[in-house]
């Protein structure tokens, strides 16, 4: 693979301690003139190694297969107390050109087929690799080193896993990416650190201080981060548009730091440019925290508050005062949200396209009427488990939201074939329909839907008392429809 690039980096890319021991051992004997020349060439080559490559062991445990680097594996990483210790490796040196070495070298083998690929093709291949694999590739040979650190490949950092020392990994990676522009990494736009429980505020501080051009940050499942670190990120990364802190139970709101607030005008809330915010499973989020979020993130268009169980209708009222551009909103499993909350949501009017109120047990036909009356351009509604919804609510929804494409009214026992008939006669563009565990649904209602909604692509009738003939009727009229069912006679 590196036939025209000299030795493999696994045997030459030693750490600083190995280099020092090699240099010191060469002074114990009286060298010949040829050996002096070779040593001089090696010393000059080593002195020019100013760049460094993070070891793959930085982001994966050292005992995993594939992390041994041939003869030089002992210098790649070390484990002291079960924790992966990051080592930084120099780029592979160019091949020594001393005449004696050229005469002693073996004949070159045929060039590997992958080496025949042009640089732009190699960069394209590398673009599909995660961060740890890209670091591996940088250690193969000098050509791969230069290609692996192409700035186009480092607009995104993706790290996953519970055992990764993420704080150290982010520090080393950002330091390497800041070499051309000291202390500032202008190329990095996306950081995805999902399920890394060892990520702490220190790692987010590194991102906030070094990556002012950050546009997307995903730290879902990293429950050790707190409000202060999130505040630093949104304050020092003015272009941040996408923030995912789902599962971060310590995060209770999104705001600027006090220092940033003092420097900005009284309308500093408009300075936070976040448009996409996912706070799913942020259990301690309360109405006051949502008020702070709404006041500072007025440009929100996508907001997901699934299982934020402390939120009430009052929090939604604050939200509608400041965030009037929301297109997608989820308050699934927020059990205190009722028809009054839906009345507030209805103030979004035609801007609202996606709404999830699944398992909001206090929602009835009254709340559905509010949404249907004012949000005429609604495309997606998830009302699963809202047992207060009846055929009247479905009828009002069907007649006012005729462009509806996806509807989930599973576990709504009061919805029957009458509601399905109104739906089928008004929402011809329906593509996804879930009726799971709707006890009052029969095969007749399904046949009406299939006869009018030819574009239906997914139908869920699990735990519904429908006949095999009705399912076959649906399959004949909606040929692209995938039917999810629990009838063993239909296949």
UniProtKB/TrEMBL annotation:
<dbReference type="GO" id="GO:0019005">
    <property type="term" value="C:SCF ubiquitin ligase complex"/>
</dbReference>
<dbReference type="GO" id="GO:0031146">
    <property type="term" value="P:SCF-dependent proteasomal ubiquitin-dependent protein catabolic process"/>
</dbReference>
<dbReference type="GO" id="GO:0005813">
    <property type="term" value="C:centrosome"/>
</dbReference>
<protein>
    <recommendedName>
        <fullName>F-box/LRR-repeat protein 7</fullName>
    </recommendedName>
</protein>
<dbReference type="InterPro" id="IPR001810">
    <property type="entry name" value="F-box_dom"/>
</dbReference>
<keyword id="KW-0963">Cytoplasm</keyword>
<comment type="pathway">
    <text>Protein modification; protein ubiquitination.</text>
</comment>
<comment type="function">
    <text>Substrate recognition component of a SCF (SKP1-CUL1-F-box protein) E3 ubiquitin-protein ligase complex. During mitosis, it mediates the ubiquitination and subsequent proteasomal degradation of AURKA, causing mitotic arrest. It also regulates mitochondrial function by mediating the ubiquitination and proteasomal degradation of the apoptosis inhibitor BIRC5.</text>
</comment>
<feature type="domain" description="F-box">
    <location>
        <begin position="111"/>
        <end position="157"/>
    </location>
</feature>
<dbReference type="InterPro" id="IPR057207">
    <property type="entry name" value="FBXL15_LRR"/>
</dbReference>
<dbReference type="GO" id="GO:0051301">
    <property type="term" value="P:cell division"/>
</dbReference>
<dbReference type="InterPro" id="IPR036047">
    <property type="entry name" value="F-box-like_dom_sf"/>
</dbReference>
<feature type="compositionally biased region" description="Polar residues">
    <location>
        <begin position="27"/>
        <end position="55"/>
    </location>
</feature>
<dbReference type="InterPro" id="IPR032675">
    <property type="entry name" value="LRR_dom_sf"/>
</dbReference>
<comment type="similarity">
    <text>Belongs to the FBXL7 family.</text>
</comment>
<dbReference type="GO" id="GO:0000209">
    <property type="term" value="P:protein polyubiquitination"/>
</dbReference>
<keyword id="KW-0677">Repeat</keyword>
<dbReference type="Pfam" id="PF25372">
    <property type="entry name" value="DUF7885"/>
</dbReference>
<dbReference type="InterPro" id="IPR006553">
    <property type="entry name" value="Leu-rich_rpt_Cys-con_subtyp"/>
</dbReference>
<feature type="compositionally biased region" description="Low complexity">
    <location>
        <begin position="10"/>
        <end position="26"/>
    </location>
</feature>
<feature type="region of interest" description="Disordered">
    <location>
        <begin position="1"/>
        <end position="55"/>
    </location>
</feature>
<comment type="subunit">
    <text>Part of the SCF (SKP1-CUL1-F-box) E3 ubiquitin-protein ligase complex SCF(FBXL7) composed of CUL1, SKP1, RBX1 and FBXL7. Interacts with AURKA; interaction takes place during mitosis but not in interphase. Interacts with BIRC5; this interaction allows BIRC5 to be polyubiquitinated by the SCF(FBXL7) E3 ubiquitin-protein ligase complex.</text>
</comment>
<keyword id="KW-0498">Mitosis</keyword>
<keyword id="KW-0433">Leucine-rich repeat</keyword>
<keyword id="KW-0206">Cytoskeleton</keyword>
<keyword id="KW-0132">Cell division</keyword>
<keyword id="KW-0131">Cell cycle</keyword>
<dbReference type="Pfam" id="PF12937">
    <property type="entry name" value="F-box-like"/>
</dbReference>
<keyword id="KW-0833">Ubl conjugation pathway</keyword>
